[in-house]
Amino acid sequence: MKGKLALFLIAIALASALAVYWNLHGGAGEAERTIRVGYLRGDVHHASYFLSKARDSFSKAGLRVKGYEFSAGPEEMEAFRAGELDFGYVGSPPAITAISRGTDVRIIAMVNLEGSSLVVRKDLYEGGLRGIGDLRGKTIAMPLWGSIQSVMLVDLLLKYNITRDMVSLQQMPPADMVTLMEAKRIDAFIAWEPFPSFAVSKGVGVKLIESSEIWPSHPCCVLIASRKVIEGNPELVKKFLAVHVEATRFVINEPESAAKILSQEIRVPEGVILSSFKSIKYTVRPEVDGILKFTDVLHRLGLIKERPGAAELFDLRFYEDLTGERIPLPQRAGA
Asked: What is the CATH number of the domain that holds 174?
């Protein structure tokens, strides 16, 4: 009896191990494996995800996707650290910071460049608040500390000799910023599109400066994948990246059609989305030099202790296979 019980337990253990292996290595069929994808709430930068979902591009590629919504990039990277996500659309600074702290992910493609703005209350602008130096003593909302917007804001303020103790920085989801500005509970905010364009369309705010003016063609969001998926199921990564590339081409080539779909997906007027597009450069080509430059900024601000090198940040084999373009990676961190 004891021998039969031991054999039974061994069989269960083997079956469980095979199931785990089968799932990780695609043996059960990629269509049967649910891919966990992170994205930010209402972020027009992540148009590729929303469009791929709405146009059934994932299912047409044989991928079953479940999306997980986050209010900011650092929160999303915590989910990666916990092993809860396979792919993610996220700002480059949160990805860099997480990788520097041991989160096992890699950047496999770009999502967009630029696309954020520092917005001030319209009544303050009309009253004379016209420059960055005028923000001393003001209450400024931003996404979580460590997000690309918070990094660019603090770095910008320092260039005008405004330290963090000279302003009141409030962390909050961008979805709350326009409402609080309308109620005059904040004086300014920095956020990703469409929230700056939405504030302008409501007559609540004025774009004081766009991120493209702070750093022209700066890298913004990236597409990342867990190393577990990259090494365990490279075919799945290829398929997911191909869907991302197709969706990015769609938003570039057919912005009106894309805006119509996005309006339904994130419940923002088409006109606001079209206005947002003017501030965003969609691209899939990895911006290696720009992202390495961000490692310098993050190091200078004390957000990372060590600057990860290009090989720690990127895995471009899938991009190169798909596009035929080879992108050499510098050997030196922060090069």
From this structure: 3.40.190.10
